[in-house]
Specification:
Distance between the termini: 53 Å
Strand order of the largest sheet: 2-6-4-5
Strand content: 25-35%
Number of helices: 1
Helix content: under 10%
Structural class: mainly beta
Number of strands: 7
């Protein structure tokens, strides 16, 4: 116990003394956005390895087979040129349903199954309770800016919509 007291006395005399660290410096929000300059943490300053995530939406309006161009929460959105895809996650709500053997694939223009190959609509990858981030099935390098596609195959779906999250980096 004596050792702890000596250490505490040392800390108080060294750091809480005049010119040392004041207790107000250690208060909540000691490092806050108000104390960090704008653009202090951006791709160019951290070597281009800042992970970014875009959200895409399939609203479930078009249930027929074929490719559906997905949009972001604010409308049209594309994966940027040069993006290195790290992972993606599909969060269905409500769950996909079909009276046939519908499949769902996820990809980009020119590669409709780059992220997820044709998968049964009721597969664990497309069920909310078991959804998690997955790695793309094929190339994860985006050449030119491109659209994200959800493709329904085999049979139409009768219900379902989803949010899709795609995480990527853009090298400097």
């Amino acid at each position: 116990m004596a050792q702890n007291r000596k250490f505490q006395d040392f800390v108080e005399s060294k750091y809480v003394a005049p010119g040392g660290i004041a207790t107000t410096d250690l208060a909540d929000l000691a490092v806050s956005t108000g104390k960090i300059a704008n653009d202090a943490v951006v791709d160019s300053k951290i070597g281009g390895l800042l992970m970014q995530t875009q959200k895409y939406i399939y609203d479930g309006v078009s249930k027929t087979t074929g490719a559906k161009t997905l949009v972001g929460p604010s409308g049209a959105q594309q994966l940027p040129a040069g993006a290195l895809i790290h992972s993606f996650m599909i969060v269905p709500e409500p769950a996909f349903a079909s009276s046939g053997s519908a499949t769902i694939a996820l990809g980009i223009t020119g590669g409709a199954s780059n992220f997820l190959g044709a998968t049964a609509f009721d597969n664990a990858a497309l069920v909310k309770a078991s959804s998690h981030f997955r790695h793309p099935t094929t190339s994860s390098i985006i050449g030119a800016a491109t659209n994200v596609l959800l493709t329904i195959g085999g049979a139409a779906i009768t219900d379902g919509s989803c949010e899709i999250y795609i995480s990527f980096m853009i090298p400097a």
